[in-house]
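From the methods appendix. Each design record in this collection lists the discretized structure first, followed by the designed amino acid sequence. Records were kept in a plain field format so they could be parsed without special tools. The example shown here is representative of the layout used throughout.

RECORD:
C-ALPHA CELLS (288 positions):
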C-alpha cells in the first residue's frame, strides 16, 4: 500500500479572536477538563488559515461547490464570499449541506442552488468531527442539528463530489479517534434498534437518543429529535478509543432499523488539518 501523501505548508493571516464552538456531547455533558479560553482562540486562528488554504487551493472560477457545516466550514464560506466580492473568483454556485451553511452563504453573497438540482458538484468541503489517521475515514454529524437539516444529504453531497476536502484540527486527526457516532434509525422501532446496537458494542459504548432541544437521558427526553426524513438520531458514545471506524460502520450497516450513520469511508478525499505548525495536507488518493 502506498503511503499517504503528506504536505506541510504555513499560511499567515492575522485575526483577532474567534469563539470556541463546543461539541454536541460537551453541551450535554459537562467535561471535567474544560479548555482555557486562550486555547480556543488559537484553535480559531489555525482554522482560519485552513479555511483560506481550502479556497485558495481547491476552488476555481465556474465551479459548483458543496458547502459544508461547522465552524471551519463557516470560515471557508466567509472567505469564499470575500473572494467573490473582490472579483478574484467568479461564477461560483454553492450547494449547501445544511440550513446553517445556506444561511452563512446567503450572508456572504454566494449564489445558491439546492441539491439535487445540480447535476455535478466539482468540489465539496465539510467539517470532520474526527478523521482516522491512515484511512482518512471521517465522522460527521455530531453537531446539534437545526430544523430541516439532514445528515443523509450532507453525507451524500460529500460522497458524490468530484473532489472532497475534510477540515479538522490536529487533535481530531488521530489513529484511534474517540467520541460519538450519530446513527439514523427508524422511529417506529428505535428502541429495539438501540438495544441491538447497545448489545453489539456492550462495554465499549453507550447509546443515547438525541433530543431536539434541552438536556435528555438515554431515551431522548420529552422532545426527541426527528430529522427532516422522519428518523431519530442515536448517538453511539464510545467510552474508549475506537479501534477501527470502518468495522464499526460495517457493523452498523448490518443492523435492521439503521438507515445511515455519520461515518464516511472509502471516499477519495483530502484532509486539511489546522495545527500550530501551519496547515497540514494529507490525502488518500493513492490508496483507493
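DESIGN:
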Amino acid at each position: 500500500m502506498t503511503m499517504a501523501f503528506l504536505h506541510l505548508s504555513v499560511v499567515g493571516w492575522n485575526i483577532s479572536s474567534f469563539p470556541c464552538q463546543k461539541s454536541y456531547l460537551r453541551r450535554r455533558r459537562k467535561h471535567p477538563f474544560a479548555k482555557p479560553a486562550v486555547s480556543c482562540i488559537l484553535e480559531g486562528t489555525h482554522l482560519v488559515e485552513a479555511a483560506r488554504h481550502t479556497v485558495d487551493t481547491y476552488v476555481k472560477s465556474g465551479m459548483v461547490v458543496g458547502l459544508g457545516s461547522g465552524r471551519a466550514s463557516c470560515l471557508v464560506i466567509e472567505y469564499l464570499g470575500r473572494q467573490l466580492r473582490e472579483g478574484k473568483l467568479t461564477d461560483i454556485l454553492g450547494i449547501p449541506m445544511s440550513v446553517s451553511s445556506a444561511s452563512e452563504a446567503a450572508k456572504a453573497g454566494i449564489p445558491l442552488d439546492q441539491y439535487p438540482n445540480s447535476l455535478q458538484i466539482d468540489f465539496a468541503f465539510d467539517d470532520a468531527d474526527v478523521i482516522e489517521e491512515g484511512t482518512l475515514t471521517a465522522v460527521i454529524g455530531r453537531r446539534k442539528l437545526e430544523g430541516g437539516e439532514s445528515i443523509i444529504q450532507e453525507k451524500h453531497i460529500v460522497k458524490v463530489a468530484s473532489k472532497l476536502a475534510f477540515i479538522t484540527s490536529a487533535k481530531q486527526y488521530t489513529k484511534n479517534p474517540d467520541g460519538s457516532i450519530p446513527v439514523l434509525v427508524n422511529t417506529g422501532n428505535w428502541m429495539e434498534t438501540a438495544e441491538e446496537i447497545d448489545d453489539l458494542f456492550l462495554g465499549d459504548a453507550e447509546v443515547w437518543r438525541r433530543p431536539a432541544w434541552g438536556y435528555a437521558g438515554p431515551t431522548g427526553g420529552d422532545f426527541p429529535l426527528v430529522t427532516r426524513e422522519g428518523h431519530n438520531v442515536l448517538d453511539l458514545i464510545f467510552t474508549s478509543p475506537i479501534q477501527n471506524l470502518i468495522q464499526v460502520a460495517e457493523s452498523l450497516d448490518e443492523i435492521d432499523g439503521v438507515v445511515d450513520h455519520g461515518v464516511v469511508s472509502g471516499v477519495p478525499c483530502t484532509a486539511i488539518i489546522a495545527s500550530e505548525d501551519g496547515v497540514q495536507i494529507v490525502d488518500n488518493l493513492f490508496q483507493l
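APPENDIX NOTE: Residues 1-42 have pLDDT under 50 and may be disordered.
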